[in-house]
Each structure stands twice: as structure tokens, then as C-alpha cells.
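BUG: 3D viewer hangs when loading the predicted structure for this chain

Environment: internal workstation, default settings.
Expected: structure renders.
Actual: progress bar stalls at 90%.

Input used:
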Amino acid sequence: MEASKVEDHEGEHFRTTTTFQKLKAQCVKTISLDKNLIKEATNALKQHAKVSAASKKDDLLEDDNDFIYIEVILAEVPTKHAVRPIQIPLPNPIYSEEYLSRACIFVKDEQRVFKDLIADKDVPCLAKVVGLTKLRKNFARYEERRTLLNEHDLFFCDSRIYAMLPKLLGKFFYQRKKFPYPLKFGDYTDADEMINNALKSTYLNMGNGPAYTLKASRVTMSTKDSVKNIIRSIYEMLPFILRSGVSPDKVQQILIKTSDSISLPIYNHLSEMEIDAFKKAPAE
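C-alpha cells produced before the viewer hung:
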């Protein structure tokens, strides 16, 4: 099989193309999602989360606002994948003050300028601003960068320094799927609006497949809002996964889960070979 190639495209641009719209339409037509099944699976995960939280009530570090994740399994490995996180807009945000979300942003060495510009603006989830010089000086050691990683839910960066960050942050930012999402700032005057809008999305870190995971909801959200997020996320993420030429009928399975639950299937696709084998199987 041909090795996967890195395709570092920008999601916002691809989302505006006819290719994206055609792929999305094909996915909607081919991959029929059962809303009632998703509702039942979501309720099961919410119940599991309640039981799990109750059993860990003495653990002060335990978070009772766990995520609900989407898992997509392909029958074929795409030949291309994106290293850059892909923005997936959500109808109901999973990062906010309500969830005590903490975001960190890496900027050029105008760190003080950036802080001054947003000082009087409402960016409630922005917990830390780190300039390049400070990143090199204060976070040179692995332990310091690991602490930075663990203390924040999301990372953003000025797109002008995006290419410098892999070396400065280290591979474990990739491994934990928390690599910064680049924002195209001008003079930082619109930074508050851009960051607040970015917090209304979730982010797909693709890897090279054939399995993909995406945070789509919170166990404390209403079932209605969770189902909306899950369905919207699936149809928004699939065109990015399939854009290298993989057909929608190669989506073998879609599941949802929490961080400590089993995965519950919400979509299954049998191949022609599996269907033939089923038909030929002797009746009991």
C-alpha cells in the first residue's frame, strides 16, 4: 500500500470549494444516520458518565464534564492526510466559561502589544499568551512544556509562526492532539473576535488513518444539543477525511464514546464480501 502523504491544506479554504460541497452531499446520501439511535447511544453515555462520576466523587481532580467523542473507522487508508488541525464548527460550543475552558495562544514577540490590545476586551477563556522568546526561554524543558499542555484545553497561534512551533513544542503536543490551530491575525485588533469564534469549534487532528477521533459534545449537554453536534460534526469532518479519493462507502463504522466508556456504534456499513458471506452462511 502506498504510504500516506502529508497534505497541509487549510480547512477554511477547502470548506468553500465545490469539492467539499459535493463530498458532503455524497456523504449525506450514502451515510444515513439514525437520529433515534444516536439519541439512545447519547443517553447511554450520559448515564454511564453519571455512574462513573459518582464512583469517583472523592477524586477532586476528576472532571465531571467529560467529552463525547466521535470515532470514524474506514475500510481503506487515505493516501493523504493533514498535519494542521482542521476546524469543525459546532452548533453548540464545547468550550466556554461554563466548562471552565482554558485556551493558550502563541504569538510573535509582540506579546506585550497583544496583551494590551485585548486587555479591555471580553475573551473569557483565554488563560495565557506566550511569545516566541518566552516560549524558547521559559518552556525549553520537557517538564515545563508538559505542564503547559496539561493546564490548557486548546491552543491557538498566530499563523505567521505556525511553522516554527513543531520544533519548539515537541512531538507530544501532536501525540496528545493539542497542536495549535493557526489564526490569521492582521494587527491583532480583531484578536478577541477571532479567538472567541475559534472557541465555538472543535478540531480534527487527522493522522494517517484509518481511524479518526473528534470531540463533539459534553456529557452535561442536553441530549438534543449533543445529537445536533454529533450529526453536524460527522458530515463536516468526513469530506476532509475522504478528500484524497476514498469513497463514502468505505466508511465502515461510526461510533461515539466518552473517555472511559466502551464505543457505541451509530453507523455500520457491510462490504459486498461481508454481505455475500452472510447470505451464504447456513441457517441455524
